[in-house]
Write a structure and sequence with these properties.
It contains three helices and five strands; from the N terminus they run ααβββββα. By secondary structure, it is of the alpha+beta class.
Length: about 110
C-alpha cells in the first residue's frame, strides 16, 4: 500500500510533460515552416514588377505588364492581357532585369 501512495505523485506530471513536448514538436515541424513560406510568398508578391515572368496558382505562365494595388496584369500571349489578384501568383520564373543602384562610395570613385 505504501508504494502506491508514493509513486502516484510523479505519474501525474509525465502526461503533462508529454503533451507539452508534443506541442513543441508540432510548432517547430509544422507551424513555423508554414509561417516562413507564407512570409516569403507575401514578399514575392509585393515585389512583383513589370517584366517578371510568373506562374499562377492555376499553372498559367505569363509576363507581368502592369502592377496595381491588389492586382497584376499578365500578358499570356502576344497582345492578350489578363488581370489576376496578387495572391494568385505562385512564383516568379524569371525576374525582370532591374538597374543596379550605385552606392555613394562607388559614385565618388567614378568622379575621380
Amino acid at each position: 500500500m505504501q508504494y502506491a501512495a508514493d509513486g502516484g505523485g510523479a505519474g501525474g506530471f509525465t502526461p503533462i510533460l508529454m503533451i507539452a513536448l508534443l506541442f513543441g514538436v508540432m510548432y517547430f515541424m509544422m507551424i513555423r515552416p508554414q509561417q516562413k513560406r507564407r512570409r516569403e510568398a507575401e514578399s514575392m508578391q509585393a515585389n512583383l514588377s513589370a517584366g517578371d515572368e510568373v506562374v499562377t496558382i492555376g499553372g498559367l505562365y505569363g509576363t507581368v505588364t502592369g502592377v496595381e494595388d491588389d492586382s497584376v496584369l499578365l500578358e499570356v500571349a502576344p497582345g492578350v492581357q489578363t488581370r489576376y489578384a496578387r495572391p494568385a501568383i505562385a512564383r516568379v520564373v524569371t525576374p525582370a532585369e532591374r538597374p543596379v543602384e550605385a552606392t555613394p562610395e562607388e559614385t565618388d570613385s567614378v568622379k575621380d
